[in-house]
Amino acid sequence: MTDMTPERGARNLLLNCAEAKPGERLLIAYEPPGYGYFDADAVPCVAAAAEGLGLHVDTVDVGFNPDNPHLPAHLLHRFEAADIVLFLARLGDQLRFSEMPQGKKIIVCFALNRELFGSGFANGHHDAFLEIKDAVNGVLDRATHVRLTCPAGTDITGRPEMNLEADGDTSILRFPMSVFTPVPAYTFSGRAALAGFLTGTGSRYYDDYNVEFDAQVFARFEQGRLTGFEGGASDVARANAHYDRVSEKFGIDRNFIHSWHAGIHPGCGFPWDMRENYEKWGGAAFGNPRILHFHTCGAYAPGEISWNIVDPTIVIDGVTFWDRGVFHAERLPGGAAILAQYPCAAALFAHPARDIGFRPDPAPQMMATA
C-alpha cells in the first residue's frame, strides 16, 4: 500500500470512523506521554487533521488511573459539550464496556503514535474493516463447528453461540477496527498453547501485570472453565499463583474463560520489542491476524488475564479462514467483493505486517501467502 501518511491515517479516523462534519466539536481526551503509552505526537497529529477539516478542537488531560478508572463530573461536563470524543488514552479502553454519555460519537483509538497513524493500520479504509468484521461475525453466527490450532500445539473446538446484539460487544467506536465480536467461550474446550507469558487485558492495571514462562505452557479448559495448566513445575506454579493473586485481589471468578477473538487487520504491526512494555503491546498488537486472544479470569468482558496464541489456524465449518496467522478475507462470503471495493485494504492483505513484537519471532521463516 503506497502513499501512507500519518495525516491520511488521522483523516481516515475522522472522516470514515467518526464521520465528522465541518463545524462539529471534537474533544481529544488524552493521556500524557509520561505514562509511557501514547506518544507525544499522537494528539497534534489528529488535532491538525481535524482543524484542516473544519472541526473545532479541544483537548483535555484525563491522566491514567490504573486502579479506579471513572468519569468524574467535570470531565463528564466536558464530554457533554462535544459532538465527538476521541480517547487517545487508556481510560477509553478501560471504560469501553461501561456507561458513556448518550448521543455522542465516542471513539477509542489503538494507534498510539504518529508512526502507527502513518502505517497500514490507520491508513486502511475504516469501512473495509467494518465490513470484514460483519462478514466474520456472520460466518461465526451460522457456524456449527470451529477448530483453533497453532504450531505450538493449541487444539480447541466448539460451536459458537454468538451474541450480535448491542450488549454482545462494546458500543464505543474503535479505530482502527481490528477484531470481530468476541466469541463466548462457554461452548469451547481444549488446550491453548500460551505464547510464553500471561498479561492483563487492559481492563485494570496492577503490580506484577505480567508473568513470563521458562518453557511452553498449556492452559486446559472445558466448556469455558479453566481446568489447569501443563508444563514445567515452576511455570505451572507461577501460572496458578498469578490466577490466585489476581482473582483474590478483585474478588472475581478465577476459572471463568469469557471469550476469544483473533485479529482481522493485516496492517496492525508492532515494530518494537513487546517486553519493553507489555501494556502497550496488549493495547495495540492484538488486531494482527497472527494473534488469537482469550479473555479470562472474571465472568465479564474482558476479564483480567489474557491468553495469547501466536499464528493461529481457524477452521470454521471446514473452511480455513486463518492459516498459521494469515487471514484469508477473500474466503469470506462477499470477502472478494470487499477487497475489490477497497484496494487499500486488499494491498494490506497482499503484504501483511508480520512483526508483532516478539524477539525473536516464533515463526520468522513464515511468509504470507495471501
Observed structural traits:
single chain; 370 residues; disordered C terminus; five-stranded parallel β-sheet; Rossmann fold
Q: Overview of this structure, please?
A:
It is built from eleven helices and 19 strands. It starts with 5 loop residues before the first helix and ends in a 20-residue tail after the last helix. It has an eight-stranded antiparallel beta sheet with strand order 13-12-9-6-5-17-18-19. Strands 2-1-3-4-7 form a five-stranded parallel beta sheet, with helices on both faces. Residues 365-370 have low confidence and may be disordered. Helix 1 (6-17) crosses helix 2 (42-52), helix 7 (126-142) packs antiparallel against helix 10 (335-341) and helix 10 (335-341) packs across helix 11. A hairpin with a 2-residue loop joins strand 18 and strand 19. It has two domains: 6-119, Class I glutamine amidotransferase (GATase) domain (Rossmann fold, 3-Layer(aba) Sandwich), CATH 3.40.50; 126-350, no CATH class. By secondary structure, the chain is of the alpha+beta class. The chain has helices at 6-17, 42-52, 73-80, 90-94, 114-117, 120-123, 126-142, 233-250, 278-284, 335-341, 343-350; strands spanning 25-30, 56-61, 84-88, 105-109, 146-149, 155-158, 173-175, 183-184, 188-194, 197-198, 211-212, 217-222, 225-230, 257-262, 291-296, 305-310, 313-316, 319-323, 326-327.
